[in-house]
Design a protein that fits this description.
Layout lengths: L1 H38 L6 H26 L10 E4 H18 L2 E6 L7 E4 L1 H17 L5 E10 L2 E8 L6 H6 L15 H11 L3 E7 L3 E8 L4
Parallel strand pairs: 2-4
Antiparallel strand pairs: 1-3, 4-5, 5-7, 6-7
Bound molecules: adenosine-5'-diphosphate (ADP) and magnesium ion.
Adenosine-5'-diphosphate (ADP) binds next to helix 4 and helix 6.
C-alpha cells in the first residue's frame, strides 16, 4: 500500500517535470527559429548576422542546460553562484525578446544602469531563463501591439530590474495566482513559466513585486542584493 502511494507520487512528479522541461525547451527553439528566419533576409548586415548567430548558439546551449538541469533535479543541485553583469543581461534579454516582439508590432525600450559594472549574484543561465519567461509573458499580453520597457538601476536597497508592458493586465486575483503551477489563461500555455522564474529569483535572494491593471498593463519590479 505504502509502496503504491510512493510510486504514484513519483509518476506524478515525473509527469510534471516533463511538462516543465517541454515548456522551457520551447523558448530557445522559438528564438532560434526566429533568427533562422532573419538569416533568410538578404539585406541582413554582416555584424548583425554575427550577433544573431551568437544568440542562436547561446540559446541552444541553454536548451541543453535545461535538459541537464531537470535530469539532475533528483540530486541535490549545488547551484552555481557567479557575478552577473546586469547591463549585459539587459542587452541579452532585449535581443532575445526582439524576435518575439517583431511579430506583434511591439516596441522595446531599454534603459541600462548608468553603472556598466553593476552586478548581482546567481547562476547566469537560470537567471536568463527567469527573465525570458517574464518578458515573454509581457509580449504575449500585448497581442494588439504595445511597448515593452526594460530597465536596470541601483537603488539604496539593491539592484532593481523592471520589466513592464502595456498589455492586457491582470486582476488582483490573477496576480495572486502567478507563480503557482499550471495556472494559465492561454490556449497553448502550460502555466509553468512564472513558477520556474519565481523559484530562480527567490534562490538568488531576489524580491518580486507585481503591479497590474486590466486593460493597462503590468510592471514586474525585481530587487536583488548588489554584488561587491
Ligand atoms: P503561461 O505563459 O504558459 O500561461 P505562466 O506561468 O508564464 O504560464 O503565466 C501564467 C499566467 O499569468 C498567464 O497565462 C497569464 O494569464 C498571466 N500573466 C503572466 N504575465 C502576464 C503579463 N505580463 N500580463 C498579463 N498576464 C500575465
Ligand atoms: Mg509564460
Amino acid at each position: 500500500m505504502q509502496d503504491e502511494i510512493v510510486k504514484s507520487e513519483k509518476i506524478k512528479m515525473i509527469g510534471e517535470m516533463a511538462a516543465s522541461v517541454a515548456h522551457e525547451i520551447r523558448n530557445p527553439l522559438t528564438t532560434v527559429r526566429g533568427f533562422i528566419q532573419l538569416f533568410g533576409n538578404a539585406n541582413l548586415e554582416p555584424d548583425k548576422k554575427e550577433i544573431y548567430q551568437k544568440i542562436c548558439l547561446d540559446e541552444l546551449d541553454r536548451a541543453q542546460l535545461i535538459i541537464t538541469d531537470y535530469l539532475t533535479l533528483a540530486k541535490p543541485d549545488p547551484d552555481i553562484v557567479e557575478k552577473i553583469n546586469v547591463n549585459g543581461e539587459l542587452d541579452y534579454l532585449s535581443n532575445v525578446l526582439l524576435t518575439y516582439a517583431n511579430y506583434n508590432r511591439i516596441q522595446v525600450d531599454k534603459t541600462p544602469s548608468e553603472n556598466n559594472d553593476l552586478c548581482i549574484l546567481g547562476d547566469r543561465y537560470k537567471f536568463r531563463q527567469a527573465l525570458i519567461n517574464i518578458g515573454k509573458n509581457a509580449i504575449e499580453a500585448m497581442n494588439q501591439g504595445g511597448s515593452l520597457r526594460l530597465k536596470a538601476f541601483l537603488r539604496h536597497d539593491g539592484v532593481v530590474m523592471i520589466i513592464s508592458d502595456t498589455g492586457a493586465g491582470m486582476t488582483p486575483e490573477q496576480v495572486k495566482r502567478l507563480g503557482t503551477p499550471f495556472y494559465s489563461t492561454k490556449e497553448k500555455g502550460t502555466g509553468l513559466g512564472t513558477m520556474v522564474s519565481f523559484g530562480i529569483i527567490k534562490k538568488m535572494d531576489g524580491k518580486i513585486e507585481i503591479e497590474s491593471e486590466p486593460g493597462k498593463g503590468t510592471t514586474y519590479t525585481l530587487l536583488f542584493p548588489a554584488a561587491e
